[in-house]
């Protein structure tokens, strides 16, 4: 059914969002009082530069009235806003209590409610979302003959094979429903998507019910005045996926798992659990379990409901990624699918550029690992991996790190505290510092270094920081040097002053220097 002014007003009233419909000469609840109220909108957008004849515009975020100057001549049909702008435009305004909620509902309607034509999996958690999404996508693609779409923090894929770099972990609702519509047009049957805490905080997934919602884990992150003021708020936003799914997949060892179970039971959600077992530490019962099959942890055995699915050897290093593989199998079970061994082993071929990506120069005894690790818990997991794989060789470890500007201030201290007693040197450098001075962030992080045995340097230019670490490591061929470059992965840009500026990439530099 086409979206019109009349049907938009009706939908908004059903969800108790509509205040009134406003034009200079009229304030009303009856869209029929406006000429053309049953004319379908030709397009929807939140960018005034994309307005054309018949467009419905969403005025969200830091919207400024002057953006509407001269917009009538371009054919604006109507706008949705929390503030009326009848002095700037003659187009009727749907005035609402929450424009982001309204945008999600109306965008879904405009694109034909594509979520109802897909089986949708939503994955949240502090770490592991991307890898789990890729593993799940690989298995569902194998089971469906390539009919699975993907929305991730790295890439989006709406046709089963073409990957396009993404801008956000979870797209804006309008973009998400547009891409869902494209996925449906390409014949996709499944959609796997990452769901960030911000997606619930700012209503990017409002009104969307996941066939399977996944809660991997939780630890403090994104705590800042512009993200989540407290850990409780962060956890509460993450937990919204429980209320907005039909079946929950839960990490059995997640912090606050008991609380999440209570919520799922209250909402009458069925639960499928997964866990990573290690004889020495973790033995929590779960429906799907991954456990090491050899002392070196080069292979893992995965079992589901007591059925042995065999040995797995992933292309992505790190024991924690076997927990993500177990989560993927739990998702498949939650969907009620019978996974063949061939489909499950599709996970073994998954590689994600910039995620646990390793570069080596055997002639100089140098190993570099590029990863998106960006907080204390992911830093700890990365160092645990280094210790398990290389600890007996007593490597000299250098960490290249910065921290995002203007947000998540808690990460700066967490990263340093997680690493400083386990490494030989920090290099503090730029990482999407945005409007915050790079030098200030680096000095703040350096101030958290309290271990006198740890060296640190501040090299503001990230490319120079990577090159410096590689040169220093190669100058000591008598020892094993390991460089951990975290935070940027394979990104080819650095965010400065709200703009993406070109950057060669950590992985590209190591490939050039180490081969």
Overview in brief:
The protein is α/β, with parallel strands linked by helices and 515 residues long. It is 30% helix and 23% strand.
Helix content: 25-40%
Tell me the number of strands. 25
Q: Please tell me what the overall shape is.
A: globular
- Largest sheet at a glance? 11 strands, mixed
Would you mind describing this structure in some detail?
The protein is an alpha/beta fold and about 525 residues long. It contains 14 helices and 25 strands. Helix 2 runs parallel beside helix 4, helix 3 packs across helix 8 and helix 13 packs parallel to helix 14. The longest helix has 16 residues. The mean pLDDT is about 95.
Which terms summarize this structure?
515 residues, alpha/beta, eleven-stranded mixed sheet, 25 strands
Topology:
Elements: H1 5-14, E1 18-23, E2 26-28, E3 43-45, E4 55-58, E5 76-81, E6 93-96, H2 99-110, E7 119-124, H3 129-144, E8 148-151, E9 155-157, E10 164-165, H4 173-185, E11 190-194, H5 197-201, E12 210-215, H6 231-243, E13 245-251, H7 257-266, E14 270-276, E15 288-292, E16 300-304, E17 307-312, H8 320-334, H9 341-344, E18 357-361, E19 366-371, H10 376-390, E20 396-401, H11 410-419, E21 425-428, H12 438-446, E22 455-458, H13 462-474, E23 481-486, E24 493-496, E25 499-502, H14 506-514
Parallel strand pairs: 3-4, 4-5, 5-6, 7-11, 7-12, 8-11, 12-13, 13-14, 14-15, 19-23, 20-21, 20-23, 21-22
Antiparallel strand pairs: 1-2, 1-6, 8-9, 9-10, 15-16, 16-17, 18-19, 24-25
Helix pairs in contact: 2-4, 3-8, 10-11, 13-14
């Amino acid at each position: 059914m086409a979206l019109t002014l009349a049907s938009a007003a009706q939908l908004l009233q059903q969800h108790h969002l509509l205040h009134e419909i406003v034009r200079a000469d009229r304030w009303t609840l009856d869209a029929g009082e406006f000429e053309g109220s049953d004319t379908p909108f030709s397009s929807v957008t939140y960018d005034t530069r994309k307005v054309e004849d018949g467009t419905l515009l969403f005025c969200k975020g830091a919207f400024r009235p002057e953006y509407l100057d001269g917009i009538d001549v371009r054919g604006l049909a109507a706008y949705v806003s929390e503030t009326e702008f009848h002095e700037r435009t003659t187009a009727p305004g749907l005035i609402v209590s929450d424009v982001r909620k309204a945008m999600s509902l109306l965008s879904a309607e405009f694109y034909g409610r594509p979520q109802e034509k897909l089986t949708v999996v939503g994955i949240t958690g502090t770490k592991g979302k991307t890898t789990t999404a890729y593993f799940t996508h690989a298995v569902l693609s194998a089971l469906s003959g390539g009919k699975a779409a993907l929305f991730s923090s790295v890439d989006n894929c709406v046709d089963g094979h073409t990957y396009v770099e993404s801008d956000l972990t979870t797209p804006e609702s309008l973009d998400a429903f547009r891409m869902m519509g494209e996925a449906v047009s390409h014949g996709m049957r499944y959609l796997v998507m990452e769901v960030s805490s911000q997606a619930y905080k700012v209503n990017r997934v409002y009104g969307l019910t996941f066939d399977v919602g996944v809660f991997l884990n939780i630890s403090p992150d994104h705590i800042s005045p512009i993200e989540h003021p407290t850990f409780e708020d962060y956890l509460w936003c993450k937990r919204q996926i429980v209320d907005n799914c039909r079946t929950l997949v839960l990490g059995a060892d997640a912090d606050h798992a008991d609380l999440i179970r209570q919520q799922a039971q209250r909402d009458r959600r069925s639960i499928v659990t997964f866990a990573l077992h290690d004889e020495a530490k973790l033995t929590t019962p779960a429906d799907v379990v991954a456990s090491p099959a050899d002392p070196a942890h080069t292979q893992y055995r995965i079992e589901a409901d007591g059925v042995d699915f065999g040995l797995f050897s992933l292309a992505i290093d790190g024991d924690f990624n076997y927990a993500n593989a177990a989560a993927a199998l739990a998702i498949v079970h939650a969907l009620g699918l019978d996974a063949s061994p061939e489909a499950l082993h599709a996970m073994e071929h998954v590689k994600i550029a910039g995620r646990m990506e390793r570069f080596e120069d055997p002639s100089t005894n140098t190993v570099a690992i590029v990863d998106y690790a960006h907080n204390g818990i992911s830093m700890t997991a990365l160092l645990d991996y280094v210790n398990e794989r290389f600890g007996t060789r007593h490597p000299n470890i250098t960490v290249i790190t910065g921290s995002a500007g203007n947000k998540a201030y808690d990460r700066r201290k967490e990263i340093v505290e997680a690493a400083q007693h386990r490494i030989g040197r920090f290099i503090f450098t730029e990482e999407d510092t945005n409007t915050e001075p790079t030098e200030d962030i680096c000095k703040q992080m350096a101030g958290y270094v309290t271990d006198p045995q740890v060296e640190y340097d501040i090299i503001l230019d990230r490319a120079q920081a990577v090159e410096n670490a590689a040169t220093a490591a190669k100058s000591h061929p008598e020892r094993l040097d390991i460089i951990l470059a975290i935070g940027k992965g394979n990104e080819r840009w650095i965010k400065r002053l709200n703009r993406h500026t070109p950057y060669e990439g950590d992985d590209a530099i190591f490939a050039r220097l180490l081969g």
